[in-house]
Amino acid sequence: MTRSNATAAERMVSFCQDLIRIPSPTGKEGALANRIIDEMKDLGYDEVRKDEAGNVIGTLRATDPSRPSLLFTAHMDQVSPGDLSRWEYDPFGGESADGWIHGRGASDTKGAIATQVHLPTALASHDLEHGDLHVAQVVVEEVAGLGSRILLDHLRPDYAIMGEATTNELSNGNRGRTLVRMRFPGESVHASISQRDQVALYRAASFLLGLADLPMKQGVMGCSHAVPTRGATNLLDDNVTPQSFDLSIDWRSVPGETPEEILERLASIMADGDEAWIPPFELSTYIGRTYQLEYAQPPYWIDPHDPFVVAAQQALSAYWKRDVPVQPWRFTTDCGLFTERGVPILGFSPCEAKYAHTPVDRVSIDLMIEAWDAYPALIEALSTLPSHRS
Ligand SMILES: [Zn+2]
Questions:
Q1: Distance 221 CA to ligand 1 centre (A)
Q2: Residues near ion ligand 1 (Cβ under 5 Å)
Q3: Ligand 1 centroid, distance to 159 Cα (angstroms)
Q4: How far apart are the CA of 164 and the centre of ligand 1, in A?
Q5: Does the global pTM surpass 0.90?
Q6: Measured on CA atoms in the order 151, 154, 156, 157, is the torsion positive or negative?
Q7: Domain ranges in the chain?
Q8: What's the CATH code, domain 176-284?
Q9: What DSSP line would sit under 306-338, residue for residue?
Q10: Could you give the CA distance from residue 98 to residue 293 in angstroms, rounded to a whole number?
Q11: Residue 334 CB coordination number (10 Å)
């Protein structure tokens, strides 16, 4: 690495520390967004803007407009640090130690934000022919992908790279997640005289035995998976049967499995009077707008032999002189929202899933520099792919 590259890498790393020092819980990403905008302006982006959801988008204009446009994206929101006594490092200290940057969100996805936002310095000593390059850092990923949904209303790149944790490997799929609420009716009667058919919990029990045996759909990434999570009654007394019993089902879907199909499958094991629905909910962004959403994140899949995946894999393998595996994520990401709207997307990030949402949240400085340093090789390869507009 040259001296100017080393200085640029140091600046990228200290930007990552800054990002961790600015708390950005879901719906409160405003201060972080402003910090990213300042950095993008300093780095010489041709255009820097915020959209109606509060997503931040920086654009480097095409050096050759016939080439495909590319998007690098990650999310600004971070989950709560939880029990502070379990942390060795201050979750909002952005401390650097032993080759790591520590803190909440380092691995999900502030480490990726720092490398992506510093794209201009990675490209500085290269003379590449590329289409428009967008870097978009979105709000509200941790709850139903609101930021990506709004982003895709106004930005449709030819190809996209998602910064969710891949340890500098490539990710090409993930199961979707649909939350289903259920209600089993009963009658509120004194426990001493209750009849079997009045007991909501017996109805729920017979449904649950059916759910445990319900064949799951086989997909390219294995089977879908459904499991009961939260259950509740509104009772205050232990000696009456509840009017109803409410249950949540967490359903991890495979490609081709829609929310409508999930509700039909559940209906096949429900009794008359049982209800199931996907609950709508409201979310407010830091901008102050409120949106109606449903708890349904689509699954994501791109064939590992797709030319986009092959181009990325070959470019990184050749640049690093090692194999770069392609495999699906275990967790749900916003990628399904992109493929649903016709934007091919691939996961590539220095962040590591094993640290995400834990009290040892951290990102490797070496992996960050490695990813950032490889962006020109990746962009050069992806710029040879066809543009959907041509
Ligand atoms: Zn994430």
A1: 20
A2: 108, 164
A3: 20
A4: 5
A5: yes
A6: negative
A7: 3-174+299-382, 176-284
A8: 3.30.70.360
A9: SHHHHHHHHHHHHHHTS---B---SS--THHHH
A10: 42
A11: 27
